[in-house]
Amino acid sequence: MQTTRIIQSERRPNYILLGSLWLALYLFAVILPLLALLIGPVPEGREFLRELSVGFGFAGASILCVQFALTARFKRVQAPYGIDLVYHFHREITYVALALVVLHPVLLIVLDLSNAVLFNVVSAPWRARFAVLATVLLLAIIVSSVWRKKFRLPYEHWRRLHAILAFFVIAGATAHIELVGHYVNSPLKRVVWIAYPTFWIGLLVWTQVVKPLLVRRRPYELLDVSPAAEGTWTIRLRPLGHPGITFKPGQFAWLSLDRRPFGHREHPFSYSSGLPQLPELSFTIRERGDFTSGIGALPVGEKVYLDGSYGHFSYVRHPSSGYVFIAGGIGITPIKSMLATLAAENDDRPLHLIYAARDPERLVFQEELDDYSRQLDLQLHYVLRYPPTDWAGERGRLDPTMLHRLLPADRSGYHFFVCGPDEMMDMVEDQLLGQGVGFGRVHSERFNLV
């Protein structure tokens, strides 16, 4: 019961207030350079479309600068939202920035067709060349991100390319602004538009250089690799020369097998262990791509590195009289971490678990989950799409009809945690929200962070 007292006495921040404050700070960071441009002398006698074009260009450049903060993995910043939501916002706001950047020259051409010659990088002045370069590289970032898998671009190579292109996008935009000269025609304004992108690029240096060096100073040793299901492995780690990191059950860390300090072979994985196992940690990983395909062959004693812990997908953050967990495939991993901790606490709240998998060989933690159903007040439902003939559980695909039948009849006192394939998660979220479950009581974890 000691663990229960520790978790219950933990001071929980007001995430709504923190989230509002961070959002306000983000808006301020985006608008600040635009406000600075209005201080002091401004060019006179310029047409409305020209000024609107300039405003769009500066706004787009400002958004792109602040993008570096969204991917810097600052735990305090991401805590109110979850890192998956922050990364999703990072992707979507990039389209807004691109639209503003493109509107900048389009409006200039609408104003005067002769401005179209500025797109001829052979004859155009350098200010226009830098603008074209920054726009083309921004398009390259978006194309390589959206169609990374179609291009078969490995995640590690994409991440390195992403950082390099982002640096040159900001450098090109800054050079364009400086060479044009309008609205940076005073020392103060010039300092703002040189110092501002320099600061944000400094965050890129933090994430790509400084933080990897700090992570390498706190290695972990691989203690064990064991099969958990078909094509799925559990690895167990212990800290080497340091007390280790802690986590809330359900959270995840970025795991790296790369001994090079500036390598990019790291991916996010949920902890499958509960809090009582600390300082040792376990991750359960399914073989899916080039990074995970060799997990089962890792030698005992191998050094690995962790950057964590991240995520808002934890019952600790959402006090409730009961919980419903809905998992698909390897999405059971963070839920198993929560159930392991709840079992260690002798928690007596009502719990429900709906776990869908392809076939019996793809069920992960079945033995442990069965044990939890005896230790806890846990209603456990297995759903197999291709069950054997003697299968006593649910059969077929988890669909709205089956979901409605398996959920508790009275859902008013529960929080719901959903993790699995995107298609399943979309269906479950739509059904819960459509049945009157409040948005604040439905929590999901998505790892499509690219």
Ordered list of secondary-structure elements with their pairings:
Blueprint: H1 2-9, H2 15-37, H3 48-70, H4 75-78, H5 83-111, H6 126-146, H7 155-180, H8 187-216, E1 219-229, E2 232-239, E3 252-256, E4 266-270, E5 281-286, E6 303-310, E7 322-328, H9 332-344, E8 351-357, H10 366-375, E9 378-384, E10 394-395, H11 400-406, E11 414-419, H12 422-434, E12 442-445
Parallel strand pairs: 7-8, 7-11, 8-9, 9-10, 11-12
Antiparallel strand pairs: 1-2, 1-6, 2-5, 3-4, 3-6
Helix pairs in contact: 2-3, 3-5, 3-7, 3-8, 5-6, 6-7, 7-8, 9-10
Question: Radius of gyration, Cα only, in angstroms?
Answer: 25 Å
Order of helices and strands: HHHHHHHHEEEEEEEHEHEEHEHE
Question: How large is the count of helical segments?
Answer: 12
Helix content: 40-55%
Hey, roughly how much beta strand do the residues contain? 15-25%
Secondary structure category: alpha/beta
Question: Given the C-alpha coordinates, what overall shape results?
Answer: elongated
* Unreliable segments of 5+ consecutive residues: 1-10
Give the biggest sheet: 6 strands, antiparallel
**Averaged pLDDT, please?**
89
The spatial strand order of the largest sheet comes to 4-3-6-1-2-5
Could you tell me the number of beta strands?
12
Measured distance between first and last alpha carbons: 40 Å
Total domain count:
3
